[in-house]
Amino acid sequence: MRIGLVTDGGYPYANGESGPWCDRLVRGLHDHEFDVYALSRSARQERSGLVDPPPQVHRVHTAPLWAPVDDGGAYGRRERRRFAEHLGRLALAVCDERADTDERAGGFAAGLYGLAELAREHGGLYAALRSETALRVLESACRAPGARRSVRDAAVADHLAFAHELERALRPLSLDWYDTEEGGLGSVDVCHATSAGPAALPGLLAKRFFGVPLLVTEYGVRLRAHYLGTDGGREEPRSAPLRALLAAFHGALAAEVYRAASLVTPGNAHARRWQQRCGADRAKLRTVHPGMEAERFIEVGEGDDTGDRDTLVWVGVIEPAKDLETLLHAFARIREERPQTRLRIVGGPAGTGEGPAYLAHCRTLAAQLFPDEATGAYAVGENPVSFEEAGGPESAELADAYAGAGIVVLSSAVEGFPVSLVEAMFCGRATVSTDVGAVVEVIGGTGLVVPAHNPKAFADACLGLLGDDGRRRRLGAAAHSRALELFTISQNVTAFRAAYLEIVSHTPVRRVAQAVGAGGAPLPFAAAAEVYVPVRWATEAPGDRREAVGAGAAAGAGGRDV
Fold it and tell me: What per-residue confidence (pLDDT) applies to 120?
């Protein structure tokens, strides 16, 4: 089976956020072929280079989302009229508050695919989306009857900024990735997108114009980041109308992606709930937990050492969402009853945003709550809270940090998938964590969970485990077994293999020629048998039937092959 894997800021770039699980997926499915289509987010990411892909990756195509690419084209009068019509439909769907959900979704889809057809026939959208025509269309949509109250006060600067963001998000419409004759996305068996944002746009076009089924995987819901204002680590302030426009656009895009996808695979129940609220059909959802490289942690969990019962360990990226203030205040309560207890905070600050300042704040708070203590008149004082850099001399490996823990703690106020808890579970350690994100789903009764922002409840839970060695061991053993069952690479790869087969088995045959080998000999078993099921799909909606288009790649913004 041939898979088109579309990534946004991830694999196969060396510092891509989705790199590890994509690499494990590709290497694990060695009986499939992969073509990778990668959108990069920054010049720094491009400079980091690409990882060396395994042999089953036949092609790697890359294109930047961070740099404007002027295709040099100019639309004539007829094309400008078509552009204004399609952009108007999309903008009205984004701004309109009165229309029902189906009507807005239909208008957004009509505008989006209309712009895609225009880009495919007459070149890219760079100049058009930065033109005065685009600004007039956006301003008219914001002033139209029934427009959302939050966008009515948008100023010219907001329209300019929204047009800039829109041009950036819609760049995949102008790429040359869709040629069937050159082995583009139009010729793959399944298109697999790693998010419902811009990474899914190539998949939408492959489905629209060539009938390629789409699978969408989200381990972190990008739409949630847009709503929270944390997308891309941007530091420049945005006005309220601009935030409302961007949130509405990305919400409409995600809804269209979920509607068009054959399957959607969230990484946890927290992401699944977000997807359902944004329009994903429950029947299309299949939860696939991320697989983790666990050997070094499993060795700790299968050993006899249960760690230092008087040591609490926190592991993660230090940022305000982790709410280390709650942890430090809870630790002060713990020290009142068990003064021999120590707290190790292992990790570094987030590379952008408030991370460094927040680390300095936490160090200051720890120094205030726990003045350096000395055991005698001539001894040097020592603080019971230590801040250690992951991989530094005090904590050479994360596995060593977990191995020295009696309890692993997590005090986050906001959390997606808690990787540190899963690592602690592989290590067979009991955990105390806050009830946020996917924590309860991950822990599943093998650890203690308390409300967020509650130092007393957090301290009481830790004290209960610190005083009961038998309970700590039982919870640690149960956590180890649960992690082995749900969060290994093998279960992740097996789940995606089943998802690919399910999609292909429900997709009409699109091949017109039999596969041949290098010498021209036919390959009768080159595709799975499910591909050739000779039935008429009764569940196919008339609006979903798309006539396969031959060659005719979108001209314009230059994707490049590596």
Answer: 87
The per-residue pLDDT for range 383-403, each reduced to its tens digit, is: 899 999 877 666 568 898 999
- Residue 155 is classified by DSSP as -
pLDDT digits (tens, 9 = 90+) for 174-190: 888 887 666 789 889 99
H-state helical runs in 130-268: 132-143, 156-169, 201-210, 222-228, 240-260
* Distance of alpha carbon 512 from alpha carbon 293, whole angstroms: 41
**Tokens of residue 396, six digits:** 């050479």
Say whether 558 sits in a helix, a strand or coil: coil
- Residue 546 has a pLDDT of 36
Pick the closest to residue 91 from 31, 165, 25 (CA basis).
Answer: 165
Distances, alpha carbon 342 to alpha carbons 66, 270, 369, in Å: 45, 32, 13
Averaged pLDDT of the chain:
84
pLDDT above 70 (res 515) = no
**Full DSSP string of 361-430:** HHHHHHHHHS--B-SSTTSPPB-SEEEE-TTSTT-S-HHHHHHTEEEEEE--SS-SS-HHHHHHHHTT-E
* Least confident residue range of 5-14, 204-213, 386-395: 386-395
Interaxial angle between packed helices 132-143 and 77-95, expressed in degrees from 0 to 180 and rounded to the nearest 10:
30
DSSP 464-496: HHHT-HHHHHHHHHHHHHHHHHHSBHHHHHHHH
Q: Which of 328, 408, 330, 407 is nearest to 368 (CA)?
A: 328
Cα dist from 13 to 18, 20, 72, 562, whole Å: 9, 10, 28, 12
Q: How many whole angstroms separate alpha carbon 2 and alpha carbon 32? A: 6
Specify the higher pLDDT residue, 440 or 516: 440
Q: Report the predicted TM-score, pTM, of the whole model to 2 decimal places.
A: 0.80
- Widest pairwise Cα distance in the chain: 88
C-alpha dist (Å) from residue 418 to 413, 422, 440? 12, 7, 10
The predicted model gives 454-480 an average pLDDT of 95
| Residue closest to 189 by CA, chosen among 546, 511, 442, 515 | 511
